[in-house]
Amino acid sequence: MSSALDGIKVIDVSQVAAVPVAARHLADFGADVVHIENPKTGDSWRVYQAGQDTGRAGAPSEINYNWENFNRNKRSATVDISQKEGQEVIYKFVETADVFLTNLRPFELERYNLQYETLNKLNPKLIYAALTGFGKKGPEKDAPAYDATAYWTRSGIPYMFTRPGLPQSGFRPAFGDNVAGLALAYGIMTSLYVREKTGKGQEVDVALLHAGMYQLSFDIAGALATGLDHEDWWDEPPPEVVAAAEEGLAPARAFYRSKAPNPLAGRYETKDNRTIVFVALQPDRYWGKFCQAIGRGDLENDPRFNSREAREENNAILYPMLDEAFAGKTLDEWRPLLEGIPYAVHQSMREVINDPQARANDFFVAYDHPTHGRLEVLANPVMLSETPASIRMAAPEVGQHTEEVLLEYGYTWEDIAQFKDKGIIA
Question: Where, residue-wise, is CATH 3.30.1540.10 in the chain?
């Protein structure tokens, strides 16, 4: 039996999770997926698992089950895309490919000459699928992002899942990447279908932040329609109940934090009680910049903290220092200092629907409702360059189109009258 995507050639220039899992879905259905890896380092996702070199997540095992899960059914080829000759190799692949996937940030795509416009000239039938953290437009289009920051934290999920005095809901690796990966794969399949009809390729654009908003769309729809935040209509417990709950949970929080090996992948409270979440999965890369940002340059070369292993060993000393630093400034004071470091802020529903980056990337769309007038809703998280999603009508009233549909399928007005008499239709 042949597979659904037999004959489809895919070039996967990505790493970590969201885009690789999108490519894996295509591979599962028979596409020939070539995963491009750096000749020296490979895909960093190869070691993000307990028992795999520097990895710390997941059940300890010498079986690299995490890598298998996200990259089965693929072939791997090493190409250094930072070199011109390496870019020309990718061009050669693209000339006969059906799909190109990437999670390189916009400035990296420009640096490595792999923009949509460049590859589209080589192969106008190519489906070019790109995933970003915060969208490909706006002031933060090049900001570093992970699913724990862009998808989870910034979209408002912790805000809606956590009530005052109660512990924050936990997060698991690639939780948002899997949703965004499905969205990207869906966009690719839609584009392949369009290509069958038109012969033309197009660009598929998905953002982790938009995917997180989509997952929380029940609450975001309510905030957009009413302007109300959760705290505006939900009865919160009295302050004394919140204080008692927080006091009782303090030992548990301290215990779990002591087991967290990477202080650059943790939560900190600001002077104005806002929560900042960092996800630097390559902590040594960001440690110096992080120390300078928080005004503790003295920590950068301190032998107790100047390596991943040292910070893990001395995290009981380091965490209080970082807590004190973050408690010294408000969120607005921290924002410009933290630019370029992977982080996100717990946002309320009101902040989410007014997020400047979301607005810059058209994550919301307005239409005219026949009853309620102008309504704003969350846009489809799969954005296609040539055949975009659109809102053509409001959600229907019960049975609003019954007669219209029956007539389209060949029934007569006499048939419709009989159906009504018998109670078959309303």
Answer: 260-346
Residue extent(s) of CATH 3.40.50.10540 domains in the chain:
1-249+348-394
Secondary structure of 273-302 in the HEC alphabet? CCEEEECCCCHHHHHHHHHHHCCCHHHCCC
What ranges in 12-163 are assigned the alpha helix state H? 18-28, 65-71, 84-95, 106-111, 116-122, 157-161
Smallest CA-to-CA distance from 376 within 347, 353, 348, 351 is with 353
Burial class (CB within 10 angstroms; exposed 0-12, middle 13-18, buried 19+) of 343? buried
CATH superfamily, region 260-346: formyl-coa transferase, domain 3 (3.30.1540.10)
* Average pLDDT value for the chain: 90
As given in the structure block, the two tokens for residue 109 are 């795509």
Instruction: Please give the single-letter amino acid code of residue 258.
Output: S
254 band by pLDDT with thresholds 50, 70 and 90: low
> Does residue 287 surpass a pLDDT of 90?
yes
For 341-352, what is each residue's pLDDT tens digit? 999 999 999 999
In this predicted structure, the answer to whether residue 51 has a pLDDT above a threshold of 50 is no
Residue pair 97/126 in contact by the 8 Å Cβ criterion? yes
Contact 33, 10 (CB under 8 A): yes
User: Which CATH code fits 1-249+348-394?
Assistant: 3.40.50.10540
Q: What's the rounded Cα separation, in Å, for the pair 119 and 87?
A: 11
Full-model pTM: 0.89
Q: How far apart are CA 375 and CA 145, in angstroms?
A: 30
| Distance of alpha carbon 294 from alpha carbon 290, whole angstroms | 6
pLDDT (0 to 100) of residue 173? 81
**C-beta of residue 364 within 8 angstroms of C-beta of residue 307:** no
Q: Residues 114-146: pLDDT tens digits? A: 999 999 999 999 999 999 999 999 999 999 998
